[in-house]
């Protein structure tokens, strides 16, 4: 197919009327500026996205670290075992305290008893008890004498301790030697009114 030269020239001439170089230049410049603005905007958005990504990565790492159990913190199983051990220690300690309180109460009771015994020993007077015992002996001798019995006294003033036969005296009074009245005759004789060297008449 061949193109008519005349028609081609005419078409170019018609198009030349439609082409405005200045307007086209301005259009191209505006397009380039628009492309540059879009590129700058995309670049800024990309930079912002990278910065946001870095921030999110840091937050993720911090969250991962906080959610991870540190080595110093025991695991759940170790925590339960520790609680059980503390419970056993608590029971053992309570038993020890109870035993100590019982022992303390026992020692306090023993101390109270010893204090009472010490006060009793402080109030105890052997001489006074001996004197009371002698007074009781003298009273018994007086009773025996009132019944007609007389103790046989040795030359040293002591009462005979061996038993002898009971003799009948003319005055119907019986003379005996008492084995239960082995006391010093000096005090007994003074209380009963007899001489320390008095002996029963044969």
UniProtKB/TrEMBL annotation:
Subunit organization? Component of the NDC80 complex.
Question: Which residues lie in coiled coils?
Answer: 97-124
Any GO BP: cell division
Its biological purpose is as follows: Acts as a component of the essential kinetochore-associated NDC80 complex, which is required for chromosome segregation and spindle checkpoint activity.
The UniProt entry, under Pfam families, shows: Spc24
* Renumbered residue ranges of the record's region Disordered: 177-202
Q: Which GO terms describe its cellular component?
A: Ndc80 complex; nucleus
User: What is the designated name of this protein?
Assistant: Kinetochore protein Spc24
InterPro entries, alphabetized: Ndc80_Spc24 (IPR013252)
**MF annotations from Gene Ontology:** microtubule binding
Q: Which organism is it from?
A: Moniliophthora roreri (Frosty pod rot fungus)
Q: What subcellular locations does the record give?
A: Nucleus; Chromosome, Centromere, Kinetochore
Q: Give the UniProt family note.
A: Belongs to the SPC24 family.
Cell cycle as a keyword? yes
Keywords on record: Cell cycle, Cell division, Centromere, Chromosome, Coiled coil, Kinetochore, Mitosis, Nucleus
